[in-house]
Amino acid sequence: MRVVYDELYGDHLLGIPHPESPGRVQAIADFLRRNGRFEDILAPRDATVEEIGRVHEAGYIDLVRAEVSAMRDRAGYLSTGDTAVDERSFAVALRAAGGAVVAMETAMHEHGSAFAIVRPPGHHAEAARGMGFCVFNNVAIAARAAQAQFGARTLIVDFDYHHGNGTQAVSGGGLSYVSAHAFPAYPGTGGSAENYALPGGDAIVNMPLPPHQFGTEPFIALWERLLRVAAERTRPDLLLVSAGFDYVSGDPVGDLGVDVGAAKHLSAAINATAQEFCGGRVAYVLEGGYDVDALSQSVADIIDVHNAGQTQDGGAEGAAIPVTQRELLNRIEGSLS
Hints:
two-stranded antiparallel ribbon, about 15% strand, globular
């Protein structure tokens, strides 16, 4: 698996007390270095205005540039909502979106896997506003770049604790979205009614979960089935993964009561789906995850799974999925078939 990383990602909110801190990506990089997994590093580039403009309105891009440049030696919030920024945030956000594009391009060219260890994250950012900790929607920008460069149909797989409202909002036209997330946790979207078969074989698939203590086996079993249902409907050329690890038990922002080892089983299922439907093409883009030890271990496990070519299921029993989610799975499967 190729890894995309840049020390520049540590400049956003440097020295500012915030859960989405530079220490997140720095801890991942340090862990990978210590364990011999940081030897095939790809340099990102800045996303172009054209690439960002396929997802975000020009007025919003200009607003971010202007408001960030006005920060000088302080931090504040974008006027669109609750996204913290400082004077380096625009430059870092450009490089984060560009890192996602480089990971996508690598996966497409090499028929393989890549992981973009980027920040700030992106899946809450909508066309005209930043939300949560997100400035630009990195994974959606990469998906539209895949469409523009390769004509690729993309399925975005989002296993972050939080629903990716921004990604869902720009889906369609060759971009599909599948998410399992805590509900009604922030941002309060992605309920059971938000499941749509879109024209052209696209789909929006949402699996709301109880906000806490869902459990490891049901989480793995649910994703193994949900991912297949979504892929069979959408027939993607590429998987892009919104890789958020705040589902892990003990995460200070999320916590679905899921063991850190679940990342191995999620990535095996994702790799199997990529091999079957996408010629092996899959790119992960970092989203949440605020326990840096769990975050680092999860990323390392995903790298190991893809490097080993593992595709076996996690042995989780479908019966472990609670009745509420099992019934919704059946309804989703029926509506998308």
